[in-house]
Amino acid sequence: MKPFFQLDRWHDSQPEEAPDSEGNPVLLRQVSVAPMEVWEWGVGPDGQPYERYAWLEDDFYADASYCRPISCEELLRLLRKKGDPELVKKFERIRQRLQKQ
User: Fold this and answer.
1) pLDDT digits (tens, 9 = 90+) for 36-62
2) How much is the pTM?
3) CA atoms of 72 and 70, how far apart (whole Å)
4) What is the bridge-based pairing of β-strands 49-55 and 66-69?
5) Dihedral of CA 65/70/72/74: which sign?
């Protein structure tokens, strides 16, 4: 498991260039333990950036979970906002690798 760092109630994971179990490289994952919810931003196996939200606490807001495509510009804006230039570099490497496939 990648190391986490905590900011307020959120635990952010380090980016992963290797695909997860669904085939998606996850560039940014934020996990909250109170309430239990997860935000993910990454790139799907087709090269399409996405945003995923999952409510895990109970069934009360389970229908609020979603996964939606986002633009490359939207993902780049979010990654730059995090202030880590390595996130942008990893996104570019993933995008180039997927374009070659």
Assistant:
1) 888 999 888 888 899 999 888 777 777
2) 0.73
3) 7
4) antiparallel
5) negative
